[in-house]
Design goal:
This protein is an alpha+beta fold. It has 3 helices and 2 strands. It has a two-stranded antiparallel sheet. The longest helix is centred in the middle third of the chain and has 13 residues, at 33-45.
């Protein structure tokens, strides 16, 4: 998932897109896997917070 965010070059990727690209087609679309991975990435990457949330849109890499 980090690779997908990096390749997006600051663009916002929806949770649905990340789920589709990072997991197989049989994954439950209502899973909270993306949120859990984002939480883990934020913890491992530390400060400043690099994985940002675009409310109701998705996630992106940036500092603001």
């Amino acid at each position: 998932m980090l690779e997908l965010l990096m390749r997006a070059d600051g663009g916002v990727l929806s949770a649905e897109y990340l789920l589709d690209k990072a997991w197989d087609a049989d994954t439950d679309p209502l899973t909270n896997a993306v949120r859990l991975i984002v939480h883990t990435l934020r913890r491992k990457l530390g400060e400043p917070r690099l994985v940002q949330t675009a409310i109701r849109a998705g996630y992106y890499l940036g500092t603001e």
